[in-house]
Design a protein that fits this description.
By secondary structure, the protein is of the alpha/beta class. The protein is about 20% helix and about 25% strand. The protein has a single domain, classed as Ribonuclease Z/Hydroxyacylglutathione hydrolase-like (Metallo-beta-lactamase, Chain A).
């Protein structure tokens, strides 16, 4: 049975360009997509990241606090993962597995809606999110510390044992950032790189973004992404508008 991959909008945020381009003016900003990816595998529905919580479209500061000064939600109300799934006939109860690339609120904001799913999260990411003063590092307890089933990972994990969805740790942006190598029958191989490659320019230039937990670790992870690309995978960035505009969305799936 063929697996399909659907790109969904998990919201939209405004960030400072200087986070990624050191020579940019400090006041210059850009708007960025927040992708979520549904993988309809024969053994279950898998969601890679859940995007922003619906409420931040209306009043982000209530939920995100001072974090809104670093990334400001700019999407209209209703643009979130749950509605994106609904548009292709999938409810939160239909999702079997949620892969959390990491636990920043623009990537795990809708976790609470997926009560039946098993959450795949790297053990080092959970430790970072539970550390003292984790909120200063962008971890918000209400977004991820939920009464759900968590399956912690410590290394690579072939999700269903058939090489179609393979989780690959990519520390650097955060301690437990994780990407997913997705092998499709007709469309080829994609690598969901999350914030290891927020913008394509990071991979092309090697310039380490300012919002990086460990620069040395990220440099190694970027090298790994480069190797994956050389083996034929299409790298999917997490906040790159130019790339996002080229991708098929919603019901228009890759297979």
């Amino acid at each position: 049975m063929t697996m399909t991959m659907h790109f969904l909008s998990g919201g939209r945020i405004r960030m400072r360009k200087s986070l990624y381009a050191p020579d940019a003016d400090g006041s210059e900003t850009f708007e960025a997509p927040v992708p979520c990816v549904l993988l309809r595998h024969p053994q279950g529905n898998v969601l890679f990241d859940t995007g922003c919580h619906p409420s931040v479209a209306e009043n982000a500061e209530v939920r995100w606090g001072s974090l809104v000064r670093v990334m400001t939600p700019v999407m209209p109300q209703g643009e979130h993962a749950v509605n994106g799934l609904k548009a292709i006939g999938v409810t939160p109860e239909d999702v079997d597995v949620v892969i959390c690339s990491h636990l920043h609120p623009d990537h795990c904001g809708c976790n609470a809606f997926f009560k039946r799913a098993t959450f795949m999260i790297h053990e080092k990411e959970i430790a970072a999110a539970r550390a003292p003063e984790a909120e200063k590092a962008g971890y918000l307890t209400q977004e991820w510390d939920l009464p759900v089933k968590i399956d912690t990972i410590g290394g690579e994990r072939d999700l269903f044992g058939d090489n179609r969805i393979v989780l690959i740790p990519l520390p650097g942006h955060t301690p437990g950032t994780t990407g997913a190598l997705v092998a499709l029958e007709n469309s080829g191989t994609f690598f969901l790189a999350s914030d290891t490659v927020s913008l394509r320019m990071t991979l092309d230039t090697g310039i380490i973004p300012r919002n990086t937990w460990n620069t040395e670790a990220l440099a190694k992870s970027l090298a790994e992404v480069g190797r994956i690309e050389k083996r034929g995978a299409r790298i999917i960035c997490s906040h790159d508008t130019a790339q996002w505009d080229t991708l098929r969305k919603g019901p228009d799936a890759y297979d």
